């Protein structure tokens, strides 16, 4: 491993890599893959376009040489990709990787799958669950998927030794904000950590409006009106969630305030799409094709050089810029289901 770690133009290192394994999903969350746009005729990526597990591992190895320590598998729905545990095993074998995590809707998270992933080297899991009320959740995932089955997936992850589990809830005013306190109540004392996420203007298809965002400050107030909570210091510099703990010892909740308190200053994340394009920001409109280089026979050193070039020129700080005028910036952006959050 080289010690020549890289920083971008704003002095931010490259520490995290989010890897999207597929653009497909079995849910149609209205804020991410609305049915009107992701219907029966939607053209998903053909299989041959997707990076193979070997290609992903090859690229990940180069990212680790440049400073990446954490890998997160995402999608689309990553568990749709068959034998994901084989990829996890390959990634866990890369010297320098300190943490492998997975973000999933948990619909396919059987005990056997959770155990296989844990045994292959998965360290952590984040489960998305946008409501604890069945009707609210079914409407949000828009395929009628019940809360009980997601809870079963969470229990399976716990039984496989993946606890504590982070549970992400994207809050949209007028859609699921009435579930903030019930969600907190459900997971209080469970050892799992609910993280309330401000609804973001990712992609072009969700019709985002600022008045649908419930600021984290308001989420904190609603929870504090019910139980005493206090802020907790971050686990590490650049942690995106602000942490709060219940003073009675019943655990923690987190706030991810991407809209009201953007965290671009510490953003050390790169994103790799399922077809091998590198994005240096969640809100980027174009990616850098790494798959074509790989398939044209580029060596790992050549890919390392290309990555150095790309990262050293990086100036992205979309959320900070957008907040100043609070309107979505009018550029063509990539979809969340394509790049994985
Ligand atoms: N399908 C998996 C899942 O839902 O966990 C992984 C991919 S999903 C795109 C990753 C995360 O992005 C989920 O927690 C989802 O709720 C979040 N997300 C999607 N669109 C979002 C938006 N517009 N604002 C905030 N979070 C969003
Ligand atoms: Fe699928 Fe996740 Fe997007 Fe929902 S948030 S549509 S589960 S990719
Ligand atoms: Fe990072 Fe871009 Fe998000 Fe800012 S807007 S935190 S640079 S991904």
Automatic annotation (TrEMBL):
Cofactor annotation: [4Fe-4S] cluster
Residues reported to bind [4Fe-4S] cluster 1: 25, 29, 32
Pathway(s) it belongs to: Cofactor biosynthesis; molybdopterin biosynthesis
GO MF entries: 4 iron, 4 sulfur cluster binding; cyclic pyranopterin monophosphate synthase activity; GTP 3',8'-cyclase activity; GTP binding; metal ion binding; S-adenosyl-L-methionine binding
Chain ranges of the Radical SAM core domain: 9-230
Source species, domain of life: Bacteria
GO aspect biological process, one term: Mo-molybdopterin cofactor biosynthetic process
Keyword Protein biosynthesis: no
Binding site for S-adenosyl-L-methionine: 31, 76, 128, 200
Record-listed GTP binding positions: 18, 72, 103, 166, 269-271
EC number(s) stated in the UniProt entry for this protein: 4.1.99.22
Signal peptide, first to last residue: none
PROSITE patterns in the record: MOAA_NIFB_PQQE, RADICAL_SAM
Known catalytic reactions: GTP + AH2 + S-adenosyl-L-methionine = (8S)-3',8-cyclo-7,8-dihydroguanosine 5'-triphosphate + 5'-deoxyadenosine + L-methionine + A + H(+)
Pfam families in UniProt: Mob_synth_C, Radical_SAM
Residues annotated for [4Fe-4S] cluster 2 binding in this entry: 264, 267, 281
Keywords assigned by UniProt, alphabetized: 4Fe-4S, GTP-binding, Iron, Iron-sulfur, Lyase, Metal-binding, Molybdenum cofactor biosynthesis, Nucleotide-binding, S-adenosyl-L-methionine
Cofactor stoichiometry and binding remark: Binds 2 [4Fe-4S] clusters. Binds 1 [4Fe-4S] cluster coordinated with 3 cysteines and an exchangeable S-adenosyl-L-methionine and 1 [4Fe-4S] cluster coordinated with 3 cysteines and the GTP-derived substrate.
Subunit structure: Monomer and homodimer.
Family: Belongs to the radical SAM superfamily. MoaA family.
PANTHER family per UniProt: MOLYBDENUM COFACTOR BIOSYNTHESIS PROTEIN 1, MOLYBDOPTERIN COFACTOR SYNTHESIS PROTEIN A
Job of this protein: Catalyzes the cyclization of GTP to (8S)-3',8-cyclo-7,8-dihydroguanosine 5'-triphosphate.
UniProt name for this protein: GTP 3',8-cyclase
Species for this entry: Spiribacter salilacus
Record gene name: moaA
């Amino acid at each position: 491993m080289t010690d020549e770690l890289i920083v971008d133009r704003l002095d931010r290192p490259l520490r995290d890599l989010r890897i999207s394994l597929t653009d497909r999903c079995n849910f149609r969350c209205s804020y991410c893959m609305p049915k009107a746009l992701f219907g029966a005729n939607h053209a998903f990526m053909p299989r041959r376009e997707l990076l193979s597990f070997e290609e992903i591992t090859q690229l990940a190895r180069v990212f680790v040489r440049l400073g990446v320590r954490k890998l997160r598998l995402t999608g689309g729905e990553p568990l749709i990709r068959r034998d994901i545990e084989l990829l996890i095993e390959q990634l866990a074998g890369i010297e320098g990787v300190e943490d492998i995590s997975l973000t999933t809707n948990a619909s396919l998270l059987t005990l056997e799958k959770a155990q296989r992933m844990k045994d292959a080297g998965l360290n952590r899991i984040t489960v998305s669950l946008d409501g604890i009320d069945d009707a609210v959740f079914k409407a949000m995932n828009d395929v009628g998927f019940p809360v009980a089955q997601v809870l079963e997936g969470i229990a399976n992850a716990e039984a496989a030794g993946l606890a504590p589990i982070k549970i992400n809830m994207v809050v949209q005013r007028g859609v699921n904000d009435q579930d903030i306190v019930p969600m907190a109540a459900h997971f209080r004392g469970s050892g799992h950590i609910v993280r309330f996420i401000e609804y973001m203007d990712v992609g072009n298809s969700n019709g985002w409006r600022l008045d649908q965002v419930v600021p984290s400050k308001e989420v904190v107030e609603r929870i504090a009106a019910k139980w005493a909570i206090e802020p907790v210091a971050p686990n590490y510099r650049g942690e995106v969630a602000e942490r709060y703990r219940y003073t009675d010892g019943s655990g923690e909740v987190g706030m991810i305030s991407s809209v009201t308190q953007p965290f671009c200053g510490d953003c050390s994340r790169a994103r790799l799409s399922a077809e091998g394009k590198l994005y240096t920001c969640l809100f980027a409109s174009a990616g850098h094709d790494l798959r074509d280089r790989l398939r044209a026979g580029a060596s790992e050193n050549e890919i390392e050089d290309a990555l150095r070039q790309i990262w050293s020129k990086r100036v992205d700080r979309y959320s900070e810029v957008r907040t100043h005028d609070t309107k979505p910036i009018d550029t063509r952006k990539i979809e969340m289901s394509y790049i994985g959050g």
